[in-house]
């Protein structure tokens, strides 16, 4: 079910500016937006499913600039779209032209004649015409194959095969199990990282293990979102579970990157997003690419992620970080040590309590 035309794109970003969406992200967003139009419950999807069940073929194209130049014959309808009408028109030969919002049927029984110079991976006449038209006009084209019993969506230079709801639910359930296992591993890693950070015992390997797990979860989640789009209302329950599993994950990722890479945050963020999946699975690769050092070398956290788990104001957290280079010193402070930083007694007491409470939770292995 994956888009066969995905490409890994390297993007460099100015560390002082927020990164722009890379081409891969834009492609994913476009794919999801297109798939939403065909989710179960929509009239167009119901019509396509009816055509498939009737063992008929069909070629449906959304209107776009330049379409009239490549269609021949047929007849004009300009009628309101309906599920039944599209199914009836599919009984004829030729392509059916819909308005680009799928609300009207504009033409039927037409012949599509896109440029034969455009490359195509397809073999059948209908699918060749569909792929070339999508490429030439940058529009949505749907090909229903009676022989292969499948529905293929074409847009620009990619294609995507729609699957039956039952098959999608099965795959979604399998993917959800993988996600749950990955999240369990992540939770164990983050609890261990908390202990290591407040004792200043973190190594590059520990950071790489956490980032690796987050990236794996996020990439699986993106694939999972496609299933949800195609499932429509049928995917509500699994959608809720996905939200539970990925809650606050992006924030944790951001805080870790800012703690360990600081001014290099945007560049490292971009490198991780564009990294090949096979490369990502080797922590030794991560340490070389992200740090340029060996896995067993020690590294200290800036401390914002850990301190954000308290109810301390950001101003007070920054004062603590500025005055104490490592978290092991910070978490072993007493009230007397804090007098030099905070003049008000209530502030000193609040900071002292927050640090001691957090240390106790972390050392007991509790999730924070």
Task: Return the CATH architecture of the largest domain.
Answer: 3-Layer(aba) Sandwich
What structural class do helix, strand and pairing data support? Answer: alpha+beta
Order of helices and strands: HHEEEHEEHEEEHHHHHHHHHHHH
Let me know the number of strands.
8
Largest sheet: 8 strands, mixed
What percent of the residues sit in helical stretches (DSSP H or I)?
40-55%
The chain-level mean pLDDT equals 88
Shape: elongated
Q: Over all CA atoms, what is the radius of gyration?
A: 27 Å
Distance between the termini: 37 Å
Low-confidence stretches: 1-21
Number of domains: 3
Structural features, described:
This protein has 368 residues and is an alpha+beta fold. The chain folds into three domains: 23-162, 3-Layer(aba) Sandwich (YojJ-like (1), CATH 3.40.1700.10; 166-291, DNA integrity scanning linker region (Ferritin), CATH 1.20.1260.110; 305-363. It has 16 helices and eight strands. The chain has helices at residues 23-36, 43-53, 83-89, 125-137, 165-198, 204-231, 236-246, 249-261, 265-274, 277-280, 283-291, 304-307, 314-323, 327-330, 335-338, 345-363, and strands at residues 58-62, 71-72, 75-80, 95-98, 104-112, 140-145, 150-155, 158-162. Strands 1, 2, 3, 4, 5, 6, 7 and 8 form an eight-stranded mixed sheet that branches. A hairpin with a 5-residue loop joins β4 (95-98) and β5. α2 runs parallel beside α3 (83-89), α6 packs antiparallel against α7 (236-246) and α6 (204-231) runs antiparallel to α8. It is elongated. The chain starts with 22 loop residues before the first helix and ends in a 5-residue tail after the last helix. 28% of the residues are buried. Mean pLDDT is 88; it is low at 1-21.
